[in-house]
Fold:
Amino acid sequence: MTESNNAPVSFDALGLPEVLSTALKAMGFENPTPIQAMTIPPLLEGRDVLGEAQTGTGKTAAFGLPALASIDTSIRKPQMLVIAPTRELAIQVAEAIEQFAKNMKGLRVATVYGGQSYGPQFAQIERGAQVIVGTPGRMMDHLRRKSLKLENVKFCALDEADEMLNMGFLEDIEWILDHLNDETQMALFSATMPPQIRKIANRFLKDPEHLRVAPVKQVKANITQLAWKVSGLNKKTALERVSEVIEYKAMIVFVRTRNDTVEVAEHLESKGFAAAAINGEMNQAQRERTVDQLRNGTLKILVATDVVARGLDIPSIDLVVNYDLPDDNEVYVHRIGRTGRAGREGTSISFIRPREMYRVRHYERLTSGRVEDYELPTIQEIGKSRIERTKQELLDILANNDIAEMMKVVETMAEESEMSTEHLAAALLFNKQLKQPLFPKEDPKPRREARDRDDRGNRRDARRGDRDNRGERGDRGDRGERQRKPKTTRSDVDWQTYRLEVGKEHGAKPGDIVGAIANEISLDSSYIGQINLFDRHSFVQLPKNMPTNVYKKLKGVRVRRQAIDISLSEAPIATQKRKPRGDKQRRYN
Ligand code: ADP
Ligand code: MG
Structure:
């Protein structure tokens, strides 16, 4: 087995054809990574390779480039097969290969994975794709249906083999590999080499070169990883606070969908931050312009999806915010790797919902690092930092400008108005802070909660596997809250907001909630205030200081067969002034 050495080499020295090395230059790949330097030469020679390297070491190019070099684009049949564990990884690999091959005329890539309908996949294969990238299950389906034939396949790569093992794909992979010609060149890549993977290697690889890049434990040591457990405040407000109080040169915020990039960026902009969205709807030129603006400091914050942020290399990025967590834990590693470039210090803050907390352990394992709890800046701290900034601003003005004339004006004003200069300074300050108050108050607007939705649908979408439905487009429309503005709500009641673990996805309607609560504790419905329904939870206003036994009783209530699991919420629903109606005695039984 050969371990990595760090002798610098160039791509040209590895013997890659020019059609590939020019594409690499365009992609900004200057030198090969260690695993690439080790695996490309033997793979170009036609040898089999067993490659052991962690995430982010550049494995896609390590097998993708030499495999592409062996493809005859005049033959419009599958010649290269890549098996990857998940739909996301398959798509990523396919996209990378398309980029590597962008100067190879006539080269086509087909991506096959579960959850998507067969039609487009048949079409892609039939158009003469030479490269097939896919997940094991769907690849088997295509083989069974004979829509995919392997007799011309000269190269097969297993990507993230240990992950496929973990996901129970071992037998599927063996089944697929059994369909390959004996001469097919094999590359097996894995972050670890458990015995089952070695067995596959022994069975399907011919005298392979075993190449390994030793995991670099401290690779992410310069990145401080923080996690804010989402509670109390919604994510937009949280992001606002982070953007305002933490010091950073450039920040990248990861969100799930294209729509979210726009929405979150616009929100930040409206609050006075130099933020912009970057997403797949923008063309390459627009994206580059935006990235340049971040690079030169015109913009401070980019709000991006994974798809467009991949490969972003901007050394000034010193803060990464995971506004939404990625479906794939490894993507987390890629994301936070956008900061801490070239040994600089970086920070990542992830907004993690209580039910997603288990992921922290995976992140720690994947980064060999610690993820620390992060407390959001309080409203008081925000005020303090604003005052501090204002002071700095004033001192800068004093240091850099001649203000003698202004001094005269102030003196005259003070004399004429018989006010102290402190009074006048305070009045100016008062005026200045109207847009951004020096003593900010908690923002009570509940509608924000609508955007702070659950990770609803991810699991469903992951199973369904449709890329388009994965949120880039799929979650318009139904994300907003449904509100009840009851005509019968009383204005003389001291309200408290409660959270219920039942929402639209369970089929709940405001009426169901009113009915269930009113019945269970014999409460007149005029004592049930506003109800905001979200996908998987809802908020309801009930009178403050409910007796414990009543509260306990409510705990067991079910709506649409879903336990409401009522809890106190810190997020207030905006109380709207309503006409009092009825004056029934408040009555709990
Ligand atoms: P792995 O599969 O090992 O996790 P990838 O192949 O996905 O790694 O590469 C990780 C990132 O590094 C990608 O953004 C890729 O574009 C980038 N990358 C890979 N090789 C190079 C290189 N030689 N120079 C610059 N960037 C590279
Ligand atoms: Mg990979």
